[in-house]
Amino acid sequence: MPKLAGFRSNVPDGLAILSDATKMPIVTGSVDVLMCMAVVHHLTDAMLEQVFDEALRVLKVGGHLILLDPVLNRQRVVGQLLWKLDRGSYPRTEEDLHKKLEGRFKIIHWEKFAIYHEYVFGIGVRRSGAVRTND
User: Fold this and answer.
1) What is the CATH number assigned to the segment(s) 29-125?
2) Which of 25, 52, 71, 122 is the most exposed, fewest CB within 10 Å of its CB?
3) Mean of the pLDDT values across residues 73-88?
């Protein structure tokens, strides 16, 4: 795990956890901020649901989930070419990703931007009373 080793050498006192995002070894309601960057297009729908449920579990009420991921836009030729090269097998549209996040979190920020792919950058907040949907 080169990234984990690099983090530990650069931040020796930092907390780094290597785990499955669908079953995080983290105490319920103990996290202020979770970041999910360039991951969800690698997850099946079932896995994505589990990751969002797990994020709900570990985040404190008022905790933030920060999401950054490429999204599918069939009108964007360069993006279509990149999706053929990308190892992510589950590209989603902006609308689909927004709907999945909105079902569990209060979305306080959402924007789309493009470099070659189109990307979404969203921030969701764990609401009071939010519960995992797959228990």
Assistant:
1) 3.40.50.150
2) 25
3) 76
Q: Residue 21 in 3-state DSSP?
A: coil
Instruction: Say how far apart CA 54 and CA 117 lie, in whole Å.
Output: 27
Q: Give strand pairing partners of 67.
A: 36, 122
Q: Please, are residues 42 and 88 in contact by the beta-carbon 8 Å criterion?
A: yes
Q: Where do the structural domains in the chain lie, given as residue ranges?
A: 29-125
Task: Answer yes or no: are the C-beta atoms of 59 and 26 closer than 8 Å.
Answer: no
Query: In whole angstroms, how large is the CA radius of gyration of the chain?
Result: 16
Other CB atoms within 10 A of residue 2 CB: 6
The pLDDT value recorded for residue 131 is 61
In this prediction, residues 129-133 reach a mean pLDDT of 62
Residue 4, pLDDT score = 85
Q: What is the pTM of this model?
A: 0.84
